[in-house]
Amino acid sequence: MQKLNRKYIHSTVKKALEEDLNPKGDITTDLISVKNKIIKAKIISKQDGIISGLDFCKTAFKIIGKETIFRPKIKDGKQIKKNKVIAEIKAKIKTILIAERTALNFLNHSSGISTITNQFVKKVGKGTKICCTRKTTPNLRLLEKFAVRKGGGYNHRYNLSDEILIKENHISQDKNLIKLINKASKTKKIITVEIENIKQLKQVIGLKFKRILFDNMKASQLKKCLKICKNKYETEYSGNANLKNIVKISKTGVKRISVGAITHSSASFDSSLLL
């Protein structure tokens, strides 16, 4: 499992700030005569939700102004109510004005993912794990998978070398699923095999791998497959899971449900900075 570190946070935030400031900086803030005056600001929540991404938010201000004092009033992964203070900032006027949008973009994006993840987690209860996928924003995967964990979810593989996942397209090209699984079993990696129907499932039962991923099955078919498995493998479902059908899917008894939407379609959390 890959984890966030200061180097990743700093480099990711720096790139975002450069995107905002190139080629000539903040030409509006430059007009302010008192831009070096130290002031205080607050970041306020405008909805209920789960907060995450505070280190990214803090780093945006710190990169622009080393004088910044950033005081979070809540920890990552904690629930917040509407109109509550997320963090207090003390810095130069120019630091706050220049860094504000980048800082809030990171905070709101991460908190949005944590918030929707937590909604899924609460729906299914403790018996089922809600997992993210590799359907993430390019160059923000570590942040988004961190946000999923802070919302109570679990991470699927981080990259293509993290685990072996034999999917439909691999099978269609090699034409021999059993051969692929046997090759994979000689490695020390976790192996997941994607299954689309009962016939395919019966082919692989008894082979050496950890997890079966049931793809886009109806609940009735999924239940039949789970009976055939008889707890021989860890089970996972994937395919258009949403807040309306997630309970029905979880009641089949499947242990993990992958939800791509928690990263690729999450709404941004709503917060604002007040001077």
List the helices and strands and how they pair.
Elements lengths: L5 H16 L16 E8 L3 E2 L3 H11 L4 E4 L6 E2 L4 E8 H32 L4 E3 L9 H10 L13 E3 L1 H7 L2 H8 L6 E5 L2 H7 L6 E5 L3 H11 L4 E5 L7 H5 L5 E3 L2 H4 L6 E4 L1
Parallel strand pairs: 6-11, 7-8, 8-9, 9-10, 10-11
Antiparallel strand pairs: 1-5, 1-12, 2-4, 3-5
Helix pairs in contact: 1-2, 1-3, 2-3, 3-4
Question: What is the β-strand count?
Answer: 12
User: Element order, helices and strands?
Assistant: HEEHEEEHEHEHHEHEHEHEHE
* Helical percentage: 40-55%
Task: State the distance separating the first and last CA atoms.
Answer: 39 Å
How confident overall, as mean pLDDT? Answer: 96
Q: Would you identify the regions where 5 or more consecutive residues have pLDDT less than 50?
A: none
Question: What count of domains describes the coordinates?
Answer: 2
* Major beta-sheet overview: 6 strands, parallel
| CATH fold descriptor of the largest domain | TIM Barrel
Shape: elongated
Description:
There is one protein chain. The chain has helices at 6-21, 54-64, 93-124, 141-150, 168-174, 177-184, 198-204, 219-229, 246-250, 261-264, and strands at 38-45, 49-50, 69-72, 79-80, 85-92, 129-131, 164-166, 191-195, 211-215, 234-238, 256-258, 271-274. By secondary structure, it is an alpha/beta fold. It folds into 2 domains: 6-114 and 267-274, Quinolinate phosphoribosyl transferase, N-terminal domain (Aldehyde Oxidoreductase, domain 3); 122-264, Alpha-Beta Barrel (TIM Barrel), CATH 3.20.20.70. The strands form 3 sheets. Strands 6-11-10-9-8-7 form a 6-stranded parallel sheet. It is elongated, with a radius of gyration of 23 Å. The two termini are 39 Å apart. The mean pLDDT is 96.
